[in-house]
Design goal:
Helix content is 20%, strand content 33%. By secondary structure, it is of the alpha+beta class. The protein has five domains: 2-186, Galactose-binding domain-like (Jelly Rolls, Sandwich), CATH 2.60.120.260; 190-292, Immunoglobulin-like (Sandwich), CATH 2.60.40; 315-517 and 583-623, TIM Barrel (Alpha-Beta Barrel); 637-729, Immunoglobulins (Immunoglobulin-like, Sandwich), CATH 2.60.40.10; 737-815, Sandwich (Immunoglobulin-like). Helix 5 (338-350) runs parallel beside helix 6 (367-376), helix 7 (397-412) packs parallel to helix 10 (447-461) and helix 15 runs parallel beside helix 16. The model has no long low-confidence stretch (mean pLDDT 96). It comes from Actinoalloteichus hymeniacidonis. Its EC number is 3.2.1.25. It is an enzyme of class 3 (hydrolase). It holds the Pfam family Glyco_hydro_2_N2.
Length: 817
């Protein structure tokens, strides 16, 4: 019997620097939830995401908080034991039932099951959870034990709590406390299913499901129990002797349909159910249900002439990863429900993304996330939760790490979408290059976690999946962890210190992080920042720019390609466009290196609040121009022009199972549309392969670099462009566009005709209506060409707005002479 305890909670401050009006208040609390959102709902604090409210609310993380509720327990059944099940307590908590301390916890990332058999009473019960201030706790630990290297302000590495909760270079410092995942009381008769791990293998056309089962028994006398496992209509039932608490059962499934990532096949899922029954009474004591998929995964890290591969092989087939990094979708992660996960994962899939890397500074997401990825064919790469810091390997942290990792591996093992366990984010790189060795001396920093403890846990609990020690990682400790020729790498000198054209200097095997910043959409930005006047460096904008020297890096990037606009709206558009251009150039280059490069994972897909960041989808869920660039660069069939050996080449990338036979028409044109030279060449691109066509010198070499371009068209509809100079050095004409708008159900069609060359036509639809969204963006048109855009969600918008210069955007607006 399970009784959720989500009703009737109150919240109050019980220590620390809370303002007087809040220190004396008792407010309704939402469970699951957190202090910030409860205080916000009670109108006691402003929205932490707006303006500079974040810093004004820093006292919350230094205050102790108490949650309390009363619940009825009137069950007449005589249970052998009763447990209080806390799926997520954030973080340093003391749990009391009817005045008795039943548990103390210090880990946000694990479930705590507390035996309350001797404390629970029939009738009213008072449950209290008191949270000690997390900031005060870690500062006290630092003072007692010394500081270990970490990024950002707070020593988040001394606690098992979401690292980015303490602020990141894209996230706010809003240190939370609260019951952030479900809490329930469970009465258990005889025994319960403590853990179920179905591990799937496929060999010689037979699917093998090996289900590992652990039992938790209660009462003074044990008895034999019956366990049944059913998979895809095949059922096995067996007895577990009275002195046994675990069992393993294997079930074979003939010719199962294989699960594939989207773009490679279907995603059939098979139900699995494990039932526990009493031998004596036949009563069902517990049940566990889920879905599994039949597939194999291997991470090929073999050596070749280029170095060390890092290639995912699914069902024996190499898969090029078109990925994006995933961070918590809200700084208050209890607000992310199944609907929001589905929306965000759909946005990723629609952009051509086939893998989401769950980054190690966040959380193990809820089951909804992984279930949706299973159903959508979205591969997931799961970091263990260590990021950009040295972590102590001694107790009490070590024991928490063990419990947390074991629970996560067991919980996520059924999901076919999960294809990699990864030890940490950038910590091995940090030890090499960030000055840690001198600061650490002989202290531990996590190496034992990543090379011994975690791989041992994975080998024990989930040997069906590969494990890597870190990201980036060169597969062996003998090679620098971020060597581009070996394993995975992160490219961050681009953005931090170099122009994005420098992506072309790299020949990586797999890029697990790279990216470029841009502001959110206008509606999101203006909801969050109310500066008057609003400028790139006004106070509220500065709060919503977390990257070190971020504004200067944006300015440097703009200066190299467009110059720096004086008008704020122009600045926003220019930085968004520069972000899109940078990431697109990187992806196109890396994909053109296939099979040397076997994947790209863009930093990052999503945001956790309204902020200038690397995300393609902003903190309010709106698509930035980068999303449209991502979709174009992650097309199944990509056509791109790349510099090669002092000239130019067209690379056709075919990430489908069908041969791509096409005819390429390549032209060098003047900006007025005059054809200067042309060529036609048939090309056959093999399945999951690429083909390179070197352009003739007279086609690749401009007569006037500032007023000419190369355009390549495939007769199957793909197009690629090459401009010889940065936009600021091009003689782009003023954008001469004719716009016609027609009403359609649910929105408008916008017909755009170009009288002259226009680069990167974009309709910033949210400026017309907050919920409006356009179907395409960043479209370059030659003189005389047209494009029709569908804009949904515009309501009764004035059609004239679609032609307004702040809505209908082009690169020409930024540089036209």
């Amino acid at each position: 019997m399970r009784k959720l305890l989500h009703d009737g909670w109150t919240l109050r401050a019980v220590g620390g620097p809370a303002p007087a009006e809040i220190a004396e208040a008792v407010v309704p609390a939402t469970v699951p939830g957190c202090v910030h959102t409860d205080l916000l709902a009670a109108d006691l604090i402003p929205d932490p995401y707006l303006d500079d409210n974040e810093s004004a609310l820093a006292w919350i993380g230094r205050t102790d908080w108490r949650y309390e509720t009363t619940f009825e327990w009137d069950e007449t059944e005589d249970y052998d034991f009763v447990e209080l099940v806390c799926a997520g307590l954030d973080t340093i908590a003391r749990v009391e039932l009817n005045g008795t301390v039943v548990g103390e916890t210090r880990n946000m990332h694990r479930t705590h099951r507390l035996d309350v058999s001797d404390v629970l009473r029939t009738g009213n019960n008072v449950l209290t959870v008191t949270f000690s201030a997390a900031v005060e706790h870690i500062e006290r630990l630092r003072a007692e034990n010394g500081e270990l290297p970490h990024t950002n302000h707070h020593p988040y590495n001394l606690i098992r709590k979401m690292a980015c909760n303490f602020g990141w270079d894209w996230g706010p410092d809003v240190v939370t406390a609260g019951i952030w995942r479900p809490i329930a009381v469970e009465g258990i008769s005889h025994a319960r299913l403590a853990e179920v791990r179905p591990l799937v293998e496929v060999r010689d056309g037979i699917g093998r499901v090996t289900t590992h089962i652990e039992l938790a028994r209660g009462g003074e006398q044990s008895e034999p129990l019956l366990v049944s496992v059913e998979v895809a209509g095949n059922q096995v039932e067996f007895a577990v002797d009275a002195d046994e608490d675990d069992a393993v059962v294997g079930i074979g499934v003939e010719d199962p349909e294989l699960w594939w990532p989207h773009g490679h096949g279907a995603q059939p899922l098979y139900p699995i159910a494990v039932r526990l029954r009493s031998v004596e009474s036949g009563a069902e004591l517990d049940v566990w249900e889920s879905e599994i998929g039949f597939r194999t995964v291997v991470l090929d890290t073999g050596s070749d002439v280029e170095g060390t591969r890092f290639t995912f092989v699914i069902n024996g087939k190499p898969v090029f990863v078109r990925g994006a990094n995933w961070i918590p979708d809200d700084a208050f992660p209890h607000r992310v429900d199944a609907t929001r996960y589905a929306a965000r994962i759909t946005q990723a899939k629609d952009a051509g993304v086939n893998l989401l890397r769950v980054w190690g500074g966040g959380i193990f997401e809820s089951d909804d996330f992984y279930r949706i990825c299973d159903r959508e064919g979205m591969l997931t790469w799961q970091d263990f939760l260590f990021a950009c810091a040295a972590y102590p390997e001694e107790e009490p942290l070590r024991g928490e790490v063990i419990a947390e990792a074991r629970e996560a591996v067991a919980r996520l093992s059924p999901h076919p979408s999960l294809v990699l366990w990864n030890g940490n984010n950038e910590n091995n790189w940090g030890w090499h290059d960030w000055g840690w060795q001198e600061r650490l001396g002989d202290r531990t920093w996590g190496w034992g976690y990543y090379t011994e403890l975690l791989p041992e846990i994975v080998a024990e609990l989930d040997p069906t999946r590969p494990y890597t020690a870190s990201s980036p990682w060169s597969v062996t400790s003998e090679i620098h962890p971020n060597d581009p020729a070996h394993g995975s790498m992160h490219v961050w000198d681009v953005w931090n210190s170099r122009d994005y054209l420098a992506y072309r200097d790299y020949r990586p095997r797999f890029v697990a992080e790279f990216g470029y910043q841009g502001p959110p959409t206008s509606t999101t930005l203006r909801r969050a920042v109310h500066d008057e006047p609003l400028t790139p460096t006004s106070p509220g904008m500065a709060v919503h720019q977390k990257a070190a020297d971020g504004d200067a890096k944006l300015t440097r990037g703009l200066d190299a390609h467009f110059g720096v606009p004086a008008d704020f709206d122009d600045w926003c558009w220019a930085t968004q466009l520069n972000q899109a251009r940078a990431v697109s150039l990187g992806i196109d280059h890396f994909r053109a290196l296939h099979p040397v490069c076997a994947g790209t994972v863009v930093w990052q897909l999503n945001d956790c609040w309204p902020v200038t960041s690397w995300a393609a989808i902003d903190g309010d869920g709106r698509k930035k121009p980068l999303w449209y660039a991502l979709r174009r660069s992650y097309l199944d069939r990509l056509l791109t022009v790349q510099p090669r050996d002092g000239g130019l080449a067209v690379v056709a990338v075919n990430d489908t199972d069908q041969e791509w036979s096409t005819v390429l028409g390549s032209r060098r044109l003047s900006f007025d549309g005059t054809e200067l030279i042309a060529s036609v060449e048939p090309v056959v691109v093999p399945p999951r392969g690429s083909a390179t066509v070197v352009l003739a010198e007279d086609l690749a070499t401009p007569g006037s670099a500032g007023s000419e371009l190369v355009v390549v068209d495939a007769d199957t509809g793909q197009r690629a462009w090459w401009f010889y100079r940065p936009d600021k050095d091009l003689e782009l004409p003023a954008a001469a566009l004719r716009v016609e708008v027609e009403d359609v159900e649910g929105g408008h069609r916008v017909h755009v005709h170009a009288a002259a060359l226009v680069r990167d036509v974009a309709i910033l639809a949210d400026r017309v209506a907050p919920d409006a969204e356009v179907d395409d963006m960043l479209v370059t048109l030659l003189p005389g060409e047209s494009r029709t855009f569908l804009v949904r969600g515009t309501g009764q918008a004035d059609p004239r707005r679609f032609a307004a210069p702040d809505v209908l955007r082009t690169a020409n607006q930024l540089v036209a002479r």
